[in-house]
Design brief:
CATH architecture of the largest domain in chain A: 3-Layer(aba) Sandwich
CATH superfamily of one domain in chain B: MetI-like
Number of domains of chain A: 2
Chains: A alpha/beta (406), B mainly alpha (608), C alpha+beta (390)
Shape of chain B: globular
Distance between the termini of chain A: 54 Å
CATH topology of the largest domain in chain A: D-Maltodextrin-Binding Protein, domain 2
Largest sheet of chain B: none
Helix content of chain A: 40-55%
Oligomer: heterotrimer
Radius of gyration of chain A: 22 Å
Number of strands of chain B: 0
Structural class of chain B: mainly alpha
Strand content of chain A: 5-15%
Order of helices and strands of chain A: HHHHHEHEHEHEEEHHHEHEHEEHH
Strand content of chain B: under 5%
CATH superfamily of the largest domain in chain A: Periplasmic binding protein-like II
Number of strands of chain A: 10
CATH topology of one domain in chain B: MetI-like fold
């Protein structure tokens, strides 16, 4: 359903009823969201005193109705978005039709560059962005931005109950879409997924037939390997399941490192990016496997690939790569920011048009009330937890290990 | 010093000495230039250097010893002398140096050879050839590496087989497909235009009597080239050499694409990796090592160019230029040059153009042709409803911004380059000239992101007399100018070195103040080099991305940011459309310059 | 009144001393030539006067105004010194037409358009190149470029015109032509001219004064005639002499005896001297005799030396005769045609008053006074000498 401008009465009706529902059931669950969100910010508050009040203000899901927000937002006139994804541009277009009078300005910046940019800006007293849409950078976003109070969590009270964990309370913020790195195969070669266990890749059958995008230049790929190192017990168990014996470490620290080393020993081929990997296995008939981003499956037709992702690998398929939503510290157009964020979340019931760019094949919206376009639901995905803190501290060591494999 | 060192003369002497020093334009401009460079380049570099000796919060990830905010040598030892050094630094640096030298040498061969043909011989089709020579630089360098792969890739990286494999059924060896060789070729083809332009400008100002003199004394043509022409254009060649060397060792896209499949890493790819993994300090150490290498190269260059030798070829005693006759080789040479240029420049261009008309990528049929990506409306089935470029309202805005930034910064960069080049060329003997030479060279080696990040903190608040520039287009122009300084200063100084001092002195005696001399004598005499600097900076600025993206605050879309967006979305045709538009703009600028500036590359290089 | 006065000028280039303690006064209207081999510092001095080079020490005064003072490091702008310079390379601006080249200085001075046209026209007329106004330098011959360069220099009506080897790039015929032109120009304009050259002939024909430079110093300042007749040092003598035919050079030794007699012992003859102070026995001396100062006679004359003709070089109006004087080669110049057969014995008289004698060790010219001739001791001593030397 999509709210038309011609029917203001209906809009009002809908909004009022939404309000009513919200206030009716907005008791325990939503206050949970609040109370869970606040502790994660207490550290930030003590670190950055000045920003603390603002932080609380932004995160406090005060009962702001869409109307109130729109009224304020119209006064603000615009909203500045720093986004790592082009999806924000698409959502902005529909938003501006829905809420005339508010201009959305999207700057596209890579997640790591965004961190530098916002840090430097804020340190210099310039508060430019309102909305931040970013991926994690091996836990650095949480460590360096969220905990320092530069990015603030925002999840409206009325939407929170529908959000799946960890994004409701446990994660650093709400993520509007989740992708992950996984193996792809060529549909014209294999009728079904040729591997079920990560250790399959180390067998002679796949010697010289595994491609990956270079984790050295795209850290999100490294995150998967780092997560394997962090969860080395899982990896060891999967080894035992596959080969029926305990894993023997050949000079490595644990099963995670051992896996990386054996991958290399089995002739892992590193290409520049995700697209190169899918070109390699998907352009023509190929029996090789490639590590790429789940979201790329939507580009299948566009690029003439015949690829399919594997969504169940042992011990776990992958680690989520989430597209987090934040409000920037001291956002100059706070109401507009909230309004835009709500729009992208698909409004209260998850049916808003703003969600469409995020709800695509290969990516998941972690909301229980949103129907995914994938064959498999988000809850069914067998993923490791993204442990920002551990990743942040382990990633450099895994990277060193990787570099030494050369 | 003085015969009678009387106390009374001391004060006026000091006063006069200062006055003399300052009234010398080389000193005054040099000083101003140095202040400018100090603030825009040296200061950021020092900041970078400073961070490498401190523990940062991030370093807790690397080692437990980290003590944020305190002094440490950890980062340098890690890079230079640890169990990581071999893979992290030594192997990549050897690769970088190898690529740097090979690319410079190959570009020199290509660029100088072509420049000589066009400028000093009676080869036909000069305008066409020199125009074609600029085209590879118009293309993003990764397109050339992609083209290389299209021809030479082997089974290793899968996908569609390379043309060589498809036609000859021979799998090219890895060394031909990936790593050193293709990287060197791609970069050389892309960058040899620098040599062509710089050396071409030098050659065209060289008196042909110098060649004739040698021919008359019985020297063979090759001997003339080697013994007379080569040494005379040596400063230009060395400038080009260093320029391309630095560009090569700092390039990222090409080595990333062609190097990774065979584990061929360069410092630049390592650096990028460190940056993206948020190991900023490690990245800083790596980029500093690159800077040191370049400083050494420039120092050696200054030793070679030397202080006493003169490279003046424009003396103000002019004579008609005679061209070397190629005899019966005239047309074959022209044919070969043109064919070569067409293969490396026009073919990729046409392929891109064709692709922008193809509804589906890789489907070569008439029915697959469409204008949709140019001016089609929204069609939900194509690119999830993304409109054709000309229908896109953002496009006009982006076009305007791009033209503004590129136009203004290229004019400023070219003129500043010439002025600083003047200081470098005239001040070869003084520390000032050498300092300007060295410092102006660093921006190529500071990763764009680092420079931009530092600029945010430097220009976000008003300092001294400098207003808060952050968020203004002025800052974008400033950083573009700074980033292109290495090229413009090199081109400027190489060109200035060619102009006899007497030409300026003659004007000085006539009573012309420095500004008049610059405007009426030096500017017109350096016209060719100025034009090439302007054009190349314009092209560079139109293509620039990394630098600008961090400094844009509101929605200041440029053509490149749109490209970035399309690339990320996988809308290749749309991307090609933009690329075509960029190329069309550059060509238009080129022809406008020819028509109205009277000072163009082809004519300038091809003779008066 | 003097136009230029140089006092104690010292200049270094790249830390190398090029000019050392130059003192020179040039009078208004003089045509002063700086003559010397390349690298002697003459061009540097010219540039110092022009203000393109800065003197470390010494002062330069032009028309009574101090324009440079090394002690106070005062250096007046070249453009304020009211002088013009013609460069060796002409330094014509290749991107400007002849007219613009010449007009530049006037344009810079912001003269009116009409006035500029008039003055440029006059200057071009004076150099007889009015028809070239619209051409570019690359379309001109060397001589024409030279004329443009001079036109450019005189158009601003400078008090002093500096010329740096202006003719060295021209061929012989043009050089002669331009030389005449410069002389005419000097007379017409009546400006002070400083002219730098390494060509002795140019120096002789053009100048009213010549300063000879060696190793960063002025070694002789004289009128051309004087310079030609009496070079102050052996070095200068060789430099002046090495135009045309070779200067005769004789190594000699001063001899004195107890009776107070003194004579010069040369390989050719013994020349009696009037004794005076400074004549030490055994002092080594170099005698230079120009070919035209050797008179040839068919019969013996007082003070003559017997010589035999070895070769004859007719050279138009004059003839050079190569002689052998007791094993020593001499060259004599004879006006008119002389038909001497090789082998003929002649008697040569060296014109002592035209000879120059130099101290061999210092190279400095000595004033020697020659006594009347006395044949007998000379003859015998000559024989002795011959046997002695064998």
């Amino acid at each position: 359903m999509f709210i038309s401008k011609k029917k203001p009465a209906l809009v009002m009706m809908t909004l009022v009823s939404a309000m009513a529902i919200m206030s009716a059931c907005g008791d325990n669950k939503s206050s949970n969201t609040l109370s869970n969100a606040v502790p994660s910010n207490t550290e930030a508050s003590s670190n950055a005193n000045a920003s603390a009040p603002a932080a609380e203000q932004s995160t406090a899901p005060a009962a702001e109705s869409v109307d109130e927000l729109y009224a304020k937002a119209k006064e603000e006139g615009k909203v500045v978005v720093y986004s790592t994804s082009g999806r924000a541009n698409d959502a902005a277009e529909t938003f501006m039709k829905q809420y005339p009078g508010i201009k959305v300005e999207v700057s596209k910046v890579k997640s790591d560059e965004m961190m530098d940019k916002v840090t430097k800006e804020q340190d210099a007293g310039q508060f430019n962005p309102d909305v931040i849409i970013t991926k994690e950078v091996s836990g650095a976003v949480e460590e360096e931005m969220v905990m320092q109070g530069r990015y603030l969590k925002y999840l409206p009270e009325d939407i929170a109950p529908m959000v799946d964990e960890p994004y409701r309370t446990q994660a650093e913020a709400y993520a509007n879409y989740v992708e992950f790195r996984t193996l792809f195969y060529n549909k014209s070669t294999y009728a079904e997924a040729p591997v079920t266990n990560w250790w399959d890749l180390t067998t002679p059958e796949f010697k010289g037939k595994v491609y990956t995008a270079d984790p050295l230049s795209s850290p999100a790929f490294m995150d998967l390997f780092t997560t394997m190192v962090i969860n080395s017990d899982d990896m060891a168990a999967a080894y035992k399941e596959k080969f029926g014996e305990e894993i023997k470490l050949n000079g490595t620290e644990n099963a995670g490192y051992e896996f990386i080393q054996e991958l290399f020993d089995n002739g892992l081929i590193v290409l520049k990016g995700s697209d190169d990997v899918l070109d390699a296995i998907g352009k023509t008939k190929s029996d090789a496997l490639g590590l790429a981003v789940s979201g790329d499956v939507s580009k299948n037709e566009e690029n003439g690939w015949t690829i399919a992702p594997i969504y169940d690998i042992k011990p776990k398929t992958s680690v989520p790569d989430s597209g987090y939503f934040f409000i920037a510290n001291k956002a100059p157009h706070e109401a507009a920011a909230k309004l835009f964020l709500r729009w992208m979340m698909g409004e209260k019931d998850g049916t808003g048009e703003g969600l469409a760019p995020f709800n695509e094949v290969g990516s998941w919206v972690p909301r229980s009330d949103v129907k995914t376009k994938n064959d498999i639901s988000f809850e069914e995905l067998n993923l490791w937890l993204f442990d920002g803190d551990k990743l942040y501290n382990t990633a450099p060591k895994v990277r060193d290990f990787w570099i030494k494999q050369k | 010093m003085a015969n009678k060192p009387a106390v009374t003369v001391k004060r006026p002497r000091l006063h006069n000495q200062t006055l003399n020093w300052l009234t010398n334009p080389v000193h005054l401009i040099g000083l101003a230039a140095l202040l400018f460079l100090a603030y825009t380049i040296v200061w950021p570099v020092l900041k970078i250097l400073y961070t490498t000796f401190l523990w940062r919060q991030q370093d807790v990830r690397l080692t437990g010893e980290a003590d944020p905010g305190h002094f440490t040598l950890y980062h340098w030892t890690r890079v230079l002398a640890s169990d990581m050094s071999m893979s992290l630094f030594y192997k990549p640096i050897l690769n970088s140096l190898g690529v740097g030298f090979a690319v410079s040498a190959l570009s020199m061969l290509l660029g100088c050879g072509l420049a000589w043909l066009v400028v000093r011989t009676n080869i036909p089709w000069k305008k066409t050839i020199s125009f074609l020579a600029v085209i590879p630089y118009l293309l993003p360098s990764w397109i050339l590496s992609q083209a290389w792969l299209t021809f030479f890739k082997n089974g290793k990286i899968g996908g569609t087989p390379g043309i060589m494999q498809a036609l000859l059924h021979v799998s090219p060896p890895d060394w031909l497909s990936y790593g050193f060789v293709p990287i060197v070729f791609s970069l050389s083809i892309h960058d040899s235009v620098f040599f062509f332009l710089i050396v071409g400008a030098a050659l065209s100002s060289m008196n042909s009597q110098l060649e004739e003199a040698a021919s008359v004394s019985g020297a063979k043509r090759l001997t003339v080239l080697r013994r007379i022409v080569f040494p005379l254009v040596l400063p230009s060649i060395l400038s080009g050499f260093i320029l391309i060397f630095t560009k090569a060792i700092s390039s990222y896209g090409v080595p990333a694409l062609l190097g990774t499949p065979v584990n061929f890493y360069m410092i630049s790819t390592m650096l990028y990796s460190s940056m993206r993994s948020r190991l900023t300090t490690e990245a800083n150490v790596l980029s500093l090592t690159l800077m040191i290498i370049s400083m050494v190269t420039i120092y050696l260059n200054q030793r070679v160019v030397g202080r006493r030798r003169s490279f003046v070829t424009v003396t103000g005693k002019d004579s008609a230029r005679t061209l070397t006759s190629l005899g019966r080789w005239r047309y074959p040479a022209a044919g070969m040059a043109t064919a070569g240029m067409i293969i490396i420049s026009v073919v990729p261009l046409l392929v891109l153009l064709l692709q922008s008309f193809m509804l589906k990528e890789g489907e070569y049929s008439l029915s697959n042709l469409t204008m949709h990506y140019w001016w089609g409306g929204s069609d939900p089935d194509i690119n999830t409803g993304e409109k054709g470029v000309f229908q896109n309202p953002i496009f006009m805005l982006a076009l305007k911004n791009s033209l503004y930034i590129a136009g203004v910064s290229s004019v400023i960069a070219a003129v500043i380059g010439l002025i600083l080049g003047y200081v470098v060329a005239r001040g070869r003997q003084s520390w000032l000239g050498r300092a300007v030479d060295q410092v102006s060279f660093l921006p190529y080696l500071i990763p764009g992101i680092s420079l931009a990040a530092i600029y945010i903190s430097m220009f976000a608040k008003p300092t001294f007399i400098i207003p808060a520039l952050y968020g203004t287009i002025t800052l974008l122009i400033l950083i573009t100018v700074v980033k292109e300084l290495p090229f413009t200063v090199k081109a400027g100084s190489a060109s200035m070195m060619q102009i006899g001092r007497e030409l300026e002195e003659a004007a000085q005696i006539s009573g012309a103040p420095w500004f008049t001399r610059f405007r009426r004598i030096l500017l017109p005499l350096n016209r060719k080099s100025l034009m090439s600097a302007f054009l190349l900076v314009f092209i560079g600025a139109m293509k620039e991305m990394e630098l600008i993206i961090l400094l844009i605050t509101p929605r200041t879309e440029t053509l490149t940011t749109i490209t970035f967006y399309y690339a990320e979305k996988g809308y290749e045709q749309l991307m090609n459309v933009i690329l075509m538009i960029i190329i069309a703009i550059v060509m238009t600028v080129y022809f406008l310059a020819v028509k109205f500036g009277k000072a163009d590359l082809t004519q300038g290089i091809g003779g008066q | 009144m003097h136009a230029i006065k140089l006092q104690g000028i010292r200049v270094s280039l790249d830390g190398k001393q090029v000019l050392n303690d130059i003192n020179l006064t040039i009078k208004q209207g003089d045509f002063m030539t700086f003559l010397g081999p390349s690298g002697c510092g003459k061009t540097t001095l010219l540039r110092t006067i022009a203000g393109l080079q800065q003197a470390e020490a010494g002062t330069i005064t032009i028309s009574g105004r101090e324009v440079a003072n090394g002690e106070t490091s005062f250096h007046m702008e070249p453009s304020k010194r009211r002088l013009s310079l013609v460069f060796q390379s002409y330094a014509l601006w290749p991107h400007m037409t002849v007219f613009d080249n010449v007009a530049f200085g006037l344009q810079v001075r912001k003269l009116g358009k009409a006035e500029i046209r008039e003055k440029v026209g006059a200057a071009l007329d004076k150099m007889r190149i009015a028809e070239l106004a619209a051409r570019y330098p690359s379309e001109l011959s060397g001589g024409q470029q030279q004329r443009v360069a001079i036109a450019r220099a005189i158009v601003t009506e400078p008090d002093i015109l500096l010329l740096d080897e202006p003719l060295s790039n021209l061929d012989a015929k043009l050089r002669v032509e331009m030389r005449a032109e410069l002389k005419r120009l000097h007379q017409e304009l009546n400006t002070t001219v400083i002219y730098v050259t390494h060509d002795q002939h140019e120096a002789m024909t053009l100048s009213t004064q010549v300063a000879v430079f060696f190793g960063g110093q002025i070694v002789q300042l004289d009128k051309p005639r004087q310079l030609y007749k009496h070079p102050q040092t052996l070095q200068v003598s060789e430099f002046i002499g090495n135009t045309g035919m070779q200067m005769n050079r004789l190594d000699a030794i001063v001899r004195t005896d107890d009776e107070g007699l003194a004579w010069l012992d040369t390989p050719v003859a013994l020349l009696p001297l009037t004794a005076g102070e400074g004549l030490k026995d055994g002092l080594e001396v170099v005698l230079t005799v120009r070919p035209e100062d050797i008179r040839l006679h068919e019969s013996k004359r007082p003070g003559s030396v017997a010589v035999s003709v070895t070769a004859v070089f007719p050279s138009g109006a004059e003839t050079y005769v190569q002689l052998d004087a007791g094993g020593h080669q001499l060259m004599a110049r004879v006006i008119g045609e002389s038909e001497y057969e090789p082998g003929t014995t002649l008697f040569a008289v060296l014109r002592e008053d035209q000879m120059n004698a130099y101290d061999k060790n210092t190279g400095i010219r000595m004033e020697l006074k020659y006594a009347r001739h006395n044949n007998e001791p000379g003859e015998s001593a000559h024989e002795d000498r011959l046997s002695y030397s064998r």
